[in-house]
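User: Hi! I'm a student and our assignment asks us to look at how structure tokens line up with a sequence. Could you show me two examples?

Assistant: Happy to help. In each example below, the sequence comes first and the structure tokens follow. Example one:
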Amino acid sequence: MTWPPWFVPKKWSRSQREDEEGFQQRVICKLVDLSLFCLLCSSSVHGKYLKY
């Protein structure tokens, strides 16, 4: 992953690789949360239809 040219991190205390790995982990966590949320919503809707 490469930073866009207009993006300048405020603190460059850590190495670039650590920042990129942390960013990827946050994105993966958000995707996992989103998929779990979608699964819960779809399963609850599916359960409502199954009751009828």
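Example two works the same way, sequence first and then tokens:
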Amino acid sequence: MRVHLCQGTARVVDCNQEQRERRSASYQVDRVCDWKSFASSHADIEPLSRFLLDGGHLHPEDEAAVLADPSTSSRLLVFHIFSNGGVNTLAILLDLVRHRHMRLTNVSALLLDSCPTPISSMAAWGAGFHTITVGIFGCTPRIDANFETSVNHPALRSVPRLLQFSQGDELVPAESVKLAVRKMCEAGHAEVVEEHDFGDSLHVQHYRKYPVEWRKHQAQS
């Protein structure tokens, strides 16, 4: 099962049907988060968390309880994350899971499309904002927290991930995603991190311009 996460939308795709028909057979699950605080966004993402719970992908934190739970799903879960808004949505979902003392299981892959953006790759004003936010207010900026989640969250730490980007993306430059790859490798995830440069496709438009190449790398990841 594949869950598509982007800014404002979560979508679930039946991967078997997708492979049979070579097109995305999907249905709307939820209208999700804006760039609000994690806590205030929990209500927005509630339908998605219920869907994962009903599908056997959310369980109590205790590992023994997970193993003993007859509803534990054997279906693999793939998160297809579009842009930094999708990373934000994933971070909110994982924060909700933590608050409820639950555990996300059977995540088999992360497909990061045109993302993520490490804070150190942002423009000078962004770096200045980061310094002010941390130094004066004593809190971690949202984009930092989101990137840290995508790198080191326990449910994702050993999960294979494919980062897709292009030189033609003006919103999230290729250099930003390459920096994210380096940071993930430095964090000890080199064995599960792959990257692919689509060249000249626009932001989150890699499949639209290069469908055959896109499918090839999805299948290999």
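Here is something you could point out in your write-up. Confidence is low (pLDDT under 50) at residues 20-35, 122-141.
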